[in-house]
Amino acid sequence: MDHIPLADGARQPALSIPLVVKSASDYPYGHGEDDFISFPEHHLRELRLIHPELGPEDALLSLAQSWLYFGTLTEFFQQPISSNTLTRLNHSGDRFICTSALHEIRSLWIASLPPRPVGGAGFRRRVGRRCGVLLARATWAYEHFQGMVTEDPRARLVMFSIKVMLCSLCHTARVVLCPTPTLDTVLARLSFRPAPVDDSTATDFLLWDYMVQNGWCPYQMNHLATLHSATSMIYLASIPRMKRNIGHENCLRAGCCKASQIDWAAFESLHVAVGCTCEHVLVDEQQIMAKLEDGQIPLLSCMRSTSGDFSIEVIQADIHTVFGTPTFYYAVSHVRLLQYDQKSFQGGRPILFIVLRMGRWSWESIG
C-alpha cells in the first residue's frame, strides 16, 4: 500500500502483507509463458513438484498471490514483475509486500503509451479494453477465493492486498487510458463489505480497528465503505479524526453517530459566568420542521430585552425580503472556525443555526 498517496502528515496504516509465494524463480508469474486463465493449473503443478510438503492452505495462498497479485500486475503493465521488486525484509528476516516501486513502474508504462493527439487515442482505448477484461477476470477469481474457508491468519491480509491492488490498477486504467463500464463495475464489486451490527470483526475491512483508533465513527465508516473504493478508504483511514468526549460504542446499533448528537438530558449550556442558573431558552423543533415542510426558510430571531430577558422566536424568511426589508442573518455551524462568538452577540439579526449530523439536519439555539 506504499504506492497510495496520503494526506499531509498522515502515516500508512500498520498492515504488513506477508509474501507467501513459493516458486522456482523470483518471477512467480512469467508474462508470455502462461496465459492468465491457465496459470493456476501450471502453478499448482509446479508447487507439487518443488514443494511437496506444502499443505492445502499454503498452496491456496501461494496461488492467490502469484496469480491475482503478481500475475495481474505483470499482465497489466506487460512486463515481468519480480517478487523481490515489490517486497522488503523486516527485522526478523521475513519478506513482506512493499509497493513503493510501483511509482516507477507506472511512470515507465505511461511514458511508453503513444500521445493522444498523435493517433494514440485509439491505441489507448484498445489497451483500456484489455485492462478492463483482465481486471474483471481477476475480480471474479478474487471473489471466489474470498468464499474459500481457511484458518490461516495470513489469508485476510493477502486477500486485502489483492483487493487494494486491483482497485489501484482500475483507477490507473480509468485515468491514464479511458473510463469504461467494465472498470466502473470492477470498482463497484471491490467495495468493502460493511461490518455487522454486533461490532464483530467478521469483515474483509481490515482497516476497521485502525480507523476506530484514529477517531472514526463505526457507523460513519460503514457508510463510507459503501461509497468509496479500497484505495480511497486507505487514504481516509490514515487521517486522524477529532477526538470526542463521547465514545462511538453504540453508533452501529443506533444507526447514527451518537457521539455527534446532543444528549438533552445531560446538556449544559455554555455561559460566561461560572455557576449560571438562568433558564435554558429554546424553541420547539416542530415549529422549525413545519416551516421546512412548507418550503419556507426558518430563522431564529434572538432578542434580549432592556431588562435582560432573552427570547427566541421562529420567523419565516423570504428568499429576498422579510417584511419588505432585506434579510440579514448570521449563519452559525458546528465548524469551530465558523462558530459565532456569543460574547459579541448584541441582537438585531436573526440567526440561522445549522447542525449536520450524518445526513440529518438539526436546529439548535444559543444557550
From TrEMBL:
This is Heterokaryon incompatibility domain-containing protein.
